[in-house]
Fold these 2 entries.
Entry 1:
Amino acid sequence: MAIGAANQRNWLRLCEVLDSPELPADERFADNRGRMAHRVELAGELASRLRRRTTEEWVAALSAAGVPCGPLYDLEQVYADPHVQAREMLVSTQHPRLGEVRHIGPPVKLSATPARIRRTAPLLGEHTREVLAEAGLDGAEIDGLLAAGVAREPVQAVAP
C-alpha cells in the first residue's frame, strides 16, 4: 500500500488512524526531517502496525481521514480494477504470430474523436520497404540494403 503522509498534517492523521499517539511524540518522528533521518526505523514501526488489518481496511480508514493512500497492484489486479475496466484501459489486438495481445488503452477519452488502437505493434522489419520507399529509395536500393544486412524484412511475410 502507498501512503502519502509526507507533510505534518497527514502524518498526524496517519498516526491517529493507526491509534499510535506515541509516534509523533517520539523525537525521531516528530517532524519530517527526523522521519527522513530515521526512515528505516519508521518503516518498521509502521509495518508492525499496518499488519493489524487488510490493505482494503486501511485504505478505507485512511481515505476517510483524508490521508492519501492506495493499494499496490500487480498487473492482473490493475486490469481487474473496476475503474480501469470502466475507462477501457485494457484493449486487445490480434498479432499475426502471438495471437491475442493485451495493450494499455488510450488514456485520453474524447467524445467527438475517440482514440483507439487499430493494430498491434509491427513485426521487426514489417514496414522496412514502405519506410525506405517513403524516404526516397527505389526498389534496387532497398534490395541492396536488405542484401547487405543493413535493413531487414520480417522472417515470414504478414498478410494485411
Note: Strands lie at 2-3, 69-70, 90-95, 99-104.
Entry 2:
Amino acid sequence: MHENVALRALRAEDPEMIAAAFAAQGWRKPATQYLAYLRQQEAGARDVIVAEVAGDFAGYVTIVWESDYLPFRVAGIPEIVDLNVLIKYRRQGIATALLDRAERRISKRACVAGIGVGLTADYGAAQILYVKRGYRPDGRGLAARGVALQSGDQATVDDDLTLHLTKLVMRPKRPRSTAIVETPQGILLAAMANGVFLLPGGGIETNESAAAAVIRELHEETGLFAESVIYLFDHESSSSQHHVFYVQAHGQPQLCGETRYLAYHTPGADLRMSAGAQAIVARFAALKAAQPEFFAALAMLRERATTG
C-alpha cells in the first residue's frame, strides 16, 4: 500500500473535487452523484470512504447498508458499491486499503459482506481482486439492475449486468447457554485442561432450547442436576453469544467429561477466569445489587430445599 495513503469519510466540499478529478482522466462522474452519496451518508443509509495520497484525492468506495439487490437485502447483507481509484493511483494498494476498511466496518454490524461485479473485460481487474480477497458467487447467477435473471431472460451486456459475490467478514458468534450456580463457597466455575475457568455451560444443539442446553451442559460438566432455571440476560463475549441462567441445582459438583478443575468465585478471588466469565459475573453482581429482594427470596428457597 502507498505509504502516504489516508482514509476518511466523504465531506461536504468533496463532490465537486471528485467529479473534477475523474473528468481530468476522461470519466464523466457528476458532482450530483456525490451530493446524493453525502445525503445518504448523513442519513445513515450509505458510508463513503475516501482515499487520499499525500493530501490528493485518489479514490473511494461506498457501503450500502440496505442493498438494492433483493437477496442481499432480505439476508441483511451490506453491499460494497462503486469502488473507484484514479488511474494514476492504481497498483499502489489503494483499492486494497479501501476494501480493507469497508470490510472492517461491515464486520461490526454483519457477518457477511456482499459485492457486485460487472462481466465485461473492463471489470477484469476487479474480478481478479475480489476472488483473491475471498469473495465467492452467491449462487444466484446473473442479475440486471439488482434483479436476478431467470433462464430464458434476455439482457444487454453492459455495466448493469452483474454477478454478486459474498465474503464472510466475521465469524458468527456461537450461541451458548451459561449457568450461574451459587453455592456457600461462591459461584461455581469449571475449567478444562488449559486451566482457564469458565461458568458451566456450552453450545446449544439443533432443536434444543437455551434452557434445556444449560441443564444438559451443567450435568455433563459438573454432575449437578438442575432444579430451577431462571433466565437472567444475554451477554456477548469475544467468541460467544451467551444466554445466562440462574440455576439452582442439587448434588455434589464433581469432575465430569472434559472438566479437569472446579473452583468457586468470590469477590477478590485470585482465579484465572476468561474475560467473558469475568464480565458475566460482574453483570450478575450488579443485577443482585439492583434486585436484592428477589435474590434473597431465591436464596431462602434454596436453603429450604436443602434443609427439607
Note: The domain at 174-307 is CATH 3.90.79.10 (Nucleoside Triphosphate Pyrophosphohydrolase).
